[in-house]
Amino acid sequence: AMGPTYAESPLFKDVAKYLYRYNYGFAAGPWIVNLDLWNSLSAEDQDILQTAMTKALSDAWDRGEELDRVGIDEMKAAGVEIVELTTEQMSANVEACRDKVWAWVETEMFSKEFMDMVRGLAQPLP
Questions:
Q1: What pLDDT, in 10s, does the model give residues 27-85?
Q2: Continuous segment of H or E residues that includes residue 9
Q3: Whole-number Å distance between alpha carbons of 60 and 68
Q4: Which of 26, 37, 84, 90 has its CA 20 to 30 A from that of 50?
Q5: How far is 30 from 81, CA to CA, in rounded Å?
Q6: Residue 11 Cα to chain centre, angstroms
Q7: What is the mean pLDDT of residues 7-18?
Q8: Which InterPro entries does the UniProt record give (predicted)?
Q9: Where are the alpha helices (DSSP H) in 78-111?
Q10: Is 16 left (phi over 0), alpha (psi -120 to 50) or beta?
């Protein structure tokens, strides 16, 4: 599993003896604004919205990290063994996912253009 985040942590500890922390996953919550509407806003209003969206994203990220810590603590308290991968193990997992999963996702879920964007944003392997 990726990690006990959000509402998942109470469930994992009830059925799992081990949690492998491979830290590979993300959730996307894009802010979408019609381009004509955006362009009709003053620079000041655009800045206000951009600042608010950036703050909301930062707050959500901080909350996710806190929920992850709380979830790990709950799982440890319930007797779940938390397995932290080495850098080499993490790299091998990321490489396999990028090679196999992303190729499948490109044809079965999203478009090549979208996955090219994801590849462009992906961090280098550790």
A1: 666 788 999 999 999 999 999 999 999 898 888 888 888 888 888 888 899 899 999 89
A2: helix 9-15
A3: 12
A4: 26
A5: 34
A6: 19
A7: 75
A8: DctP_fam, TRAP_DctP_sf
A9: 87-96, 102-108
A10: beta
